[in-house]
Amino acid sequence: MIALDFEKCGGLIPTIVQDFETGEVLMLAFMNEDAWRETLKQGRATYWSRTRQELWVKGKTSGHVQWVREIWIDCDDDTVLLKVDQVGEAACHTGYRSCFFRKVEGDSVRVVGERIFDPKEVYK
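The structure assignment produced for this chain is given below.
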């Protein structure tokens, strides 16, 4: 098993997720040791949901799966970068391709992304 430092952030590792082909940053999530092991074992991105306090297999409900193509680890062994094939076009639970769909412009925030699906329809 690849040794990561889960202790630094209270048992969680920040996980940056990028589109393998384009390099677009899709989201930031967290992994605990179980999520890390499942991701390595299945090749499918699995995270720890801080809101629900449970493992979260990306796409299990929405069908917007993330298949892991590459895994990078930072110099301190406490952050992971996943390069994924994003199935279903949207990574964000709010219906956008990327969770980073808002841009700060001066004193305001502007939505620059296009909503791909209606979350009310997907997460009934």
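Interim note for the steering committee: The beta strands are 13-19, 25-31, 46-49, 54-57, 66-73, 80-86, 102-105, 108-111. Helices lie at 33-42, 119-122.
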